[in-house]
Amino acid sequence: MPTPSHTSIEEIVETGRRLIESGGIDGLTMQKVASAVGVRAPSLYKHVQSRGALIRLIIEDVATDLGRSLEEAVLGDDPGGDLVRLATVFRDFARSHPESYGLMFAPIPEEWRPATTLLMEATGPMLRTVEAMVDPENALEAARLVTAWAHGFVSMELVGAFRLGGDLEDAFQFGIERLVEALG
Amino acid sequence: MPTPSHTSIEEIVETGRRLIESGGIDGLTMQKVASAVGVRAPSLYKHVQSRGALIRLIIEDVATDLGRSLEEAVLGDDPGGDLVRLATVFRDFARSHPESYGLMFAPIPEEWRPATTLLMEATGPMLRTVEAMVDPENALEAARLVTAWAHGFVSMELVGAFRLGGDLEDAFQFGIERLVEALG
DNA sequence: ACCTGAACACCGTTCAAGT
DNA sequence: ACCTGAACACCGTTCAAGT
Description:
Chain A is mainly alpha-helical.
């Protein structure tokens, strides 16, 4: 006799994302997800293939959100100003979702990795803005310069690698201003 | 009756590092370390406080090696040339120790994180080289720009986040050249 | 068609008992 | 003083049995 599902893939992903944000990747156990959505751990496997597949779905969800936030930052009038806004939104996103952002480019098992397509879509607004600033043949390289810097900065900030004193806001401003200059 | 130790902290760290390099962080289990050094898992706790503490020691070992490699890249005659060499050595190091490099700035539990002192010592050659290129009041910000870019680039490269085509060597050269220009 | 308890193969870690 | 087996509390995952 068919029995209706007590949960859904959406609820499972959302719950898992919350668990990661509050307790890091080790805080995501199938048992905790299960009890949070009101079933037992084995039932989760009706909705998701494995813990790794769930983690991948969560990271892809985060990447999609980041992409949306970045798209909103692009006004389209002034590429230099857009790039500053993009960098700021990028950093703010990372700081407000530190654990899940951290997983997006982290060295994790292949099975957990988000689809590269989604990562590229997420950083798409950066590429399009940079394309408006430099020669077409340098656009990809220039976008990679900005994206690498932005990710490197926020990931080092999140793990506390910048502790020589100094103001991190100043360092971030210094960085984005020099990059805009270098590309403008 | 005293019995001599069958292993040592150095051997344990070295073995653990090899396990991480060949199988990622999940490849480092206390049981595998133990059997590789010829004891049973419980004996490891005579030499190391916990798995997390062992991971921290391994990352610190890697950071020390990276610092040494970077120091050798600094010739001291031409800061711009030194910076290009530093960036190249940084990237080469990451690519030849992908798994353990990846852990150095990864979002891992607090207990596993390397001492910040060691991270700063590792990136010290970058700071000192940049200090020879810019105004003293901008040195820290400028060093953070270069370090963030270098780490961001290689960590994204290692996880395969750059897949829009294009040549990664070109992108790396483009990046370091623009940065040297921007600071010079 | 989904949920469950029981079971399996792993973990990290503790601890009393050996030598 | 270090090593060991046994045990404990957890994991992720499978599967036969329930409804």
